[in-house]
Amino acid sequence: MAIIRKAACPLNCWDSCGLQVTIENGKVVKVEGDPDHPITKGKICGRGRMLVDRTNSSKRLLHPLKKINGQFVEISWDQALDEIAGKLKEIKTRFGTTAVLHSHDYANNGILKNLDQRFFNCYGGVTELYGSLCWGAGIEAQNWDFGGAYSHEPNDIYHSKNIVIWGRNVARTNMHFYEQLLKAKKLGAKLYVINPLYNAPAKLADDFITIKPGMDGLLAAGIMKEILRLGLEDRTFIEQFTYGFTDLVQLLNEMTIAQISEMTEIPAELITKLAYVYADKPTSTYMGLGMQRYRNGGNTIRLIDALVAISGNIGIPGGGANYANTQVGQSFAFEELTMPNRRQAHRQFSIMKQAENVLTATNPEIKMIVVTCGNPLTQVPDSSIVEKAFTSVDTLVVMEQYMTDTARLADYVLPITTAFEEEDFYYASMYHHYVNYGPKLVSAPGEAKPDLWVWTQLAERLGFGQDFQFTRKEWLEMTLKPLAKHGLSLESLIEQHTMELPVAKIPWHDRKFKTPSGKFEFTSLLAQQKGENGKLTLALPDESKWSKPDLADKYPYNLLTIHPMRSNHSQNYHLLGGKVKLKVEIAQNIADELSLQNGDYVRVWNDRGEVKGYISILPAAHPNTINIDEGIWQEFGGSVNLLTSNKESDNGLGSTLYDCLVNLERIPLNE
Ligand code: SF4
Question: Rounded to a whole number, what is the distance in angstroms from the first to the last CA of the chain?
C-alpha cells in the first residue's frame, strides 16, 4: 500500500522546497511538492522530481570499491575502512595531518553533511578549502559593505514599486520567486531585468537591459553618476548611515557616461532611466551569482550595493540589495558540530586553485585527497589541471552515490546514501528563512551507508570514536541549540516539518550595520583590516577587449557557463535518459558571422582547452555571447571547465568561471 510522507529537497538550490514523497513497497515512487510549505506551496521543479530516479537508479554505487591495477574491485566495508584509516594514521605520523586535502562542496544541504569537518578537525586538522566556486566574491563583498549578506524575506517583494532582477534567471534557479514576480507584476510593480541572456524573467520585464558580460559594476557606477548628477540621491541616508562617500564620488569621476555606455554596450539614455527607477522608491534589487564570477566580481557586487545605498533603498520594506541570506545558516550551532578547536594543524587552499596547489604543495606534499559532497572534475575550473592533480596523489577517496568523473579517478569509492535514506534537516542561505525536516523514508540499496556512519567508523579506528558517539537525534538537537531560546526544537521541527527561523525580515531596518564603523561602508574598513585598501574600483574582467586586447582578438567571444535547467550542477546528467549532448548556445551575430545553423557541430576553444558540441542560436542574447551549461560530464562532451580559468576574484574568495574568452569553429561531425 502506498503511503505519503513529508520530506525536504536536499539539493543546493535557492528554494529549499518542502516535499511530499509517495512510498510503495519500501520504494520511493513519486516526489511532489508539499502544499503546506509556507513558501514553496506544493510546487517543485523537475530536478526535485528526479529525486525518484536519484534514489532508485540501477546506476547507484552499492558496494565499496578499490582500484587495483586500474580496475575497480568490490571490497568489504571493513577492508575499505581499515585500509583508509591505516593510510590516515601513516600520513599523520610520517608527514603530518595537513598532507591530507579535504575537497568538498555543497551537493547536499543537510546540516549533518558538515560532520566531515568535525572528523577532519578531530583527526588533527587537514588542508581545507576556502572560498567558493559559486557565490564567494559576492558574499565577501557584502561582508565588507554591510557586515553580512542578508536578503529580505520573500514576501517583502510585494512592497516594491520597482523590482530589478540583475543577472539572475529566477525561472531556472528560483522558481518560487519567479511565481512571486508574476504576482508582484499583477499588483502593479514595474520589473527591470539586466542580463546578457534574454531569459524567462526578461520576457516579463517592462524593460530588458542587455549588457556586455562582466560589465555590471560599470553599469551600477553609471547609474550612480546619473543619480548624483540629477540630485536624486538620499542625502539623509548617505550622511547619517554611510562611510566613505567622498571616495565613491571621486571614483565615479574617473569615467564619463559615454565611456560607461560604450563599455557596457547600454545606451546612455537607458542608464539615466535606471537612475530614475532607483530614485522612485522602494526599488528592490535581486542579484544573481553569475555576474560576480569574474576577476572584478567583488567590486561588481559592491558597486551595486553602493547604488542601492545612495538611492536610499537599504533597510526599507520593498528595497534591499538582495544577494544571499546567510543569516539563515548562521542560526545553527556550527562550531559545536564541527569542533574547529580540535585542530592542531591547519592549511588552506583556495577552492579555485586546489588542483594547482596540490601539484605544488610542499611541507607537506599532499598524499591523500578525500572528496565529499562534490564532483571537482566537472565543477572546479581548468579541468585538465584538476585531473592531473587528483591523479597525482597516493590515495584518492571519493564518497559518492554514482560513478562520477571524479569517482572514476579514485583509489577508493565509498557508496553513500541519498537524502531519503537518512534523517537530516535542510535549509538554504539564499532565499527563504524556513528549515525543513527530512525523515528517513526508505532503506538504502546494497551496502550504501550514510556518510555519518563512515565518519563514525573511521573515527573509532583512529582513536577519537568518542567524538562521534551521538545518535542522529542528538546530532540534530546539538545543531538546533541556539534556537531553543526562541522556542524552537527538534521536536517541533519534526512535528511541523518546516519551521520559520528568527532572522531579520527587512535586514538593516535599524540602520545598524555589522561593519567596523557600524555604517554602510563605501570604503571597507574590514577590507583594510585584511590588508586591502578597501576602496571601490571601476575594475574590469580579466579577459576582455579592454583589459587584454590581444587575447580578445584571438578569442572574441564571452563564454558563460550558467546553471543547467534539468540538473543541479553535475548531479543529474547521467539520469536524464538518452544521449545527452553538449549544447553550445550562441548569440545571433556569431551565427551570422560564422554562417552557423542550429545543430551544427562546433569546437569551442581557448589556451586552456576545448570542448565540442552542437549549436543552438539565442537570437536575443547579447552580441558575442556564448553559453554552455555547467556540470556536464566527460561522457557527454564536458566538462566545460576545460575552458575556464582558476584565477580568483578580486577579493580572493570567488571564482572567475565566467571571465572567459573563447573562439569557436564548425567542425565535421566525426572529428
Ligand atoms: S531543486 Fe530547488 S526548486 Fe527544485 S525541488 Fe529542489 S529545492 Fe525545489
Answer: 53
